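Bump. Still looking for HTH cro/C1-type domain-containing protein C-alpha cells.
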Amino acid sequence: MLTVDTFNEIEIEDDVERLLILRKRMALSQYQFAKGMGISTSYLGQIERGEVPFSPQLRVRINDYLKREKEIHEKDIFSSF
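Sorry for the wait, here they are.
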C-alpha cells in the first residue's frame, strides 16, 4: 500500500538515500520503479550509486509517478464497492 504522497515526505538529508528508501517502501525493483518514472534501469542504478547527480527533473518525475500511483490505488479501492 502506498502511504507516501510526495517525495519530500521522506525525511532524509540525502536525496539518493530518500530515493532508495522510497523504492524499498514501495517494494519495487529498480526496473519497476524506473519504468514507472520513464527512465532507464541503468540510469536509476547510476543515481542510486551516486554516479550521476540527482536532478530537479528527477524529483518532478518521482512526484508525478507517486501522484499517478496514488490515483490508481484510489480507483482500485472505489471500484471494489
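Helices lie at 15-25, 30-37, 41-48, 56-79.

Edit: fixed formatting.
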